[in-house]
């Protein structure tokens, strides 16, 4: 459970980062997309980088990774 690993401030930052990344994106409400972004954000936070900017950057990297994975070969 996420609440076991992170304090309230970090959880709020993680949610804000996820919302910022997914807002205004055509696939922003897609479960698989949000899950991919969330996993990157969680991994970032687990390394101790819990600032909103750091978490948003991790989410942006997830977007690039997800986009690259979806491109046909």
Estimate percent helicity. over 70%
Radius of gyration: 12 Å
Based on DSSP secondary structure assignment, what is the total number of beta strands?
0
Number of structural domains: 1
Number of helices: 4
Overall average residue pLDDT:
90
Short key terms for the protein model shown above:
73 residues; mainly alpha; 4 helices
Structural summary, described in words:
The structure is a single chain. The protein has one domain (2-70). It contains four helices and no strands. The radius of gyration is 12 Å and the shape is globular. The model has no long low-confidence stretch (mean pLDDT 90). With 73 residues, it is mainly alpha-helical. The protein has helices at residues 2-5, 8-22, 31-46, 52-70.
Reconstruct the topology from this structure:
Elements: H1 2-5, H2 8-22, H3 31-46, H4 52-70
Helix pairs in contact: 2-3, 2-4, 3-4
Kindly summarize this structure in a few lines.
The chain has 73 residues and is an all-alpha fold.
């Amino acid at each position: 459970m996420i609440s076991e690993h992170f304090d309230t401030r970090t959880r709020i930052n993680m949610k804000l980062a996820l919302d910022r990344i997914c807002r205004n994106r055509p696939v922003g409400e897609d479960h698989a997309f949000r899950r991919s972004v969330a996993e990157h954000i969680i991994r970032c936070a687990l390394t101790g980088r819990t600032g909103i900017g750091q978490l948003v950057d991790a989410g942006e990297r997830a977007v690039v990774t997800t986009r690259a994975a979806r491109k046909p070969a």
